Amino acid sequence: MKDIKVDVDRLNREIFLMTRAQPGLLDEYLREDGFDPDQLEKNGIAKVKALLFKQKVALKKSQQESLYAKAMAVFETAQTATKDMILSLLRERAPQLQFNNLEKMEEADLREILNESDLLDLMNKIEKNEL
Fold first, then answer.
1. Distance from CA of residue 46 to its chain's centroid?
2. 97: nearest Cα among 105, 116, 75
3. pLDDT for 15-32, tens place per residue?
4. In this structure, are residues 127 and 67 in contact, taking their beta carbons and an 8 Å threshold?
5. Which is nearest to 127 in space by CA: 55, 65, 59?
6. Pairwise CA distance, residues 57 & 63, whole Å
7. Are 114 and 93 in contact (CB under 8 A)?
8. Are the C-beta atoms of 125 and 131 separated by less than 8 Å?
9. 107, 99 Cβ separation under 8 angstroms
10. How far is CA 8 from CA 1, 5, 13, 15, 93, in A?
11. CA nearest 68: which of 116, 104, 100?
12. Closest by CA position to 126, among listed 56, 58, 65, 61
């Protein structure tokens, strides 16, 4: 028997051109093999939407973590004006406490004192370059 070399690229190109000329042909092939083209399309669209959603969530999470890290950096390395703003916010939220040295405070202490909305406000200010 003679060795026959199949040009797979050419075969794929011909099948592609054939299905472009006759769009129903691919659906017919799929049905012959026991697949529902409409269901395959729905599954494909759902998968793409799920992947896009996961990517958006990952991006938002990354952005929020970055903003949170910047907000915590403000607490740790803020200049005098920013320290005064943070101290006034802390005094407003917890007037019974005295805050002499902000640099000496632990991250856990700051989290306890400031509620999440205050931290989110600070993160928004950082994001808008207001600090």
1. 19
2. 105
3. 889 888 898 888 898 899
4. yes
5. 65
6. 10
7. yes
8. yes
9. no
10. 20, 9, 8, 10, 71
11. 116
12. 65
Alpha helix segments (H runs only) across 1-131: 8-21, 23-32, 37-77, 80-93, 107-113, 116-127
Q: From CA 70, how far away is CA 35, in angstroms rounded?
A: 52
The tens digit of pLDDT for each residue in 40-64 reads 999 999 999 999 999 999 999 988 8
Which residue, chain included where needed, has tokens 């915590």? 72
How long a stretch of residues is the chain? 131
CB 28, CB 36: distance < 8 Å: no
Helix axes 23-32, 37-77, angle to 10 degrees: 100
Q: What's the rounded Cα separation, in Å, for the pair 39 and 53?
A: 21
Structure tokens at 127: 């994001």
Instruction: Copy the structure tokens of residue 95.
Output: 């007037």
Distance, C-alpha 112 to centroid of its chain: 27
Per-residue pLDDT of 90-118, as tens digits, reads 667 665 555 555 556 666 666 666 656 66
